[in-house]
Amino acid sequence: MDEIIQDEQLSKWFSTYGLITAERLLGTYHITLPQNELISAIKSPFSFYHQLLKMPLKNVLNGIVLQQAGDYHIYAQKLFIDYLLSGESGKSESSPGALTRESLEAERQKLVTLGEDFHHLQQEQNKLIANSQARLIKIAEDWRKKFESVLSLINKTLNSSGFEVNKSTIRKAVNYAIIHCDYVKAASLGNTLLIVEEFNKITKLKLSDDLKNKILSNMSEILEILSHFDSQISSFFQENKVLGEQAKSYRSQFYDTILRVVELIKLLPEYKINPEQDAINKESLYFDKTIGEN
Questions:
Q1: What is the C-alpha to C-alpha distance for residues 40 and 159, in angstroms, rounded to an integer?
Q2: Which InterPro entries does the entry mention (predicted)?
């Protein structure tokens, strides 16, 4: 299902978790779609539903990278805990390995500072999730209300023109139209009626130009939301991108710290890593560390 979301990494993540994730995320906005419409909605990069899902999915992807960085951080801390508990670090400067112990202490102090900075990044991630979700929930609430209003207006317009179309069909037709028509692009090219043509692929009515324009006018409230969606959340996407790069950087830094510390420990003549304890400590590290990379 890699084609569902054009962003390569988002696509890889989505292919793992699939439709259930999309369904649950839309559920947080109190939006429910039949599965066939859901599949089409998330495949369409310009549909309202796709746009509504994109930010939460990107936040989840960053969260996975942060979790991996955190797991590396914890493992590095455990290396030092075992080392400190062994008493090796307290040996005198005249004991063999003094320079190595000095280097290990420098690495430990750097890890403490790195960990504090990383904790700040985690807080920034939580703040971004809360703020972006609050904005999306507000947009979705506005969408739901106006969507129902649009259905009623179109129903009234069709009835007054002698067409009897039930509301469930109108709902399906409107959803089909906004999923399959890139309205923002069509409008920029002066073809605003394209969305009505898509609408009519479901209703299959003989619509006059006047009636098409009336239906387009009936849709104006949700089309307004579509037209301004990007401008309302673009700052969150930018922040997400910056946080994502920082998360990958911390993951790399913690990983590199582990490599350096392990190599230093190997130089100690009288202290060795306990293989059994190390195996336990490594249990959380069996993950794909390329997640989030280009």
A1: 29
A2: DotZ-like (IPR049719)
Determine the distance from the C-alpha atom of residue 48 to the mean position of all C-alpha atoms in its chain, rounded to a whole number. 16
- Please check the confidence at residue 3 and state whether its pLDDT lies above 50: no
Q: What CA–CA distance (Å, rounded) separates 227 from 246? A: 31
Q: Distance of CA 165 to CAs 169, 179, 197, 205, Å? A: 7, 20, 16, 10
Identify whether the C-beta of residue 244 lies closer than 8 Å to the C-beta of residue 165: no
Least confident interval from 127-141, 154-168, 242-256, 276-290: 276-290
Q: What is the mean pLDDT of residues 32-43?
A: 85
Q: Is 196 exposed, middle or buried (0-12, 13-18, 19+ CB in 10 A)?
A: buried
Give the alpha-carbon dihedral of 207, 151, 166, 199, to 10 degrees.
40
Query: What pLDDT, in 10s, does the model give residues 90-100?
Result: 888 888 889 99
At residue 2, the pLDDT reads 38
Give φ, ψ of 280 to 5 degrees.
Answer: -65, -45
pLDDT bucket at 23, cuts 50 / 70 / 90: confident
* Weakest-pLDDT range from 49-63, 138-152, 199-213, 278-292: 278-292
CA–CA dist 106, 5 (Å, integer): 44
Please state, in angstroms and as integers, the Cα–Cα distance from residue 246 to each residue in 33, 54, 57, 187, 241, following that order: 36, 20, 18, 38, 9
Q: Are the C-beta atoms of residues 171 and 222 closer than 8 Å to each other? A: no
